[in-house]
Amino acid sequence: MSVPVVILLMWAVTYPARLLGLSLGRLRLPPFWLAFLRFVPVSVFAALIVPDVLGSPEWARRLVGCAVGGLLMWRTRNLALGILVGFAASWAARLAGL
């Protein structure tokens, strides 16, 4: 299959889905769906992070960094501080030999 055909097929699959998502902006959703959609960012974030943390050979120090950073973000609601302290905790665990 040639490159232009592959690009065209990729466009044909992704463009309608994006157009549908953009056109739903004017739609009023029932309270059930609004409550359901509130958990989507958290679940997507967990689906991206958990395999990378627990599937790694150095999962123990990554888990320490995630726990410290997550706890700090939960307590302070400061994303940048949580990320920086999580990285620092991960490096401290590495230096400690964990």
Q: Can you tell me about this structure?
A:
The protein has 98 residues and is an all-alpha fold. The protein has 5 helices and no strands.
Brief summary:
With about 100 residues, this protein is mostly helical.
* SSE sequence, one letter per element: HHHHH
**Structural shape:** flat
Largest beta sheet, briefly?
none
Q: What structural class results from the helix and strand content?
A: mainly alpha
**Number of alpha- plus pi-helical segments:** 5
Percent of residues in helical segments? over 70%
Number of strands: 0
Distance between the termini: 49 Å
Mean pLDDT over all positions: 89
The poorly predicted ranges are none
Strand share of the residues? under 5%
Note the topology.
Blueprint: H1 3-23, H2 31-37, H3 40-54, H4 59-76, H5 79-95
Fill in the keyword field for this structure.
mainly alpha, 80% helix, 0% strand, 98 residues, 5 helices
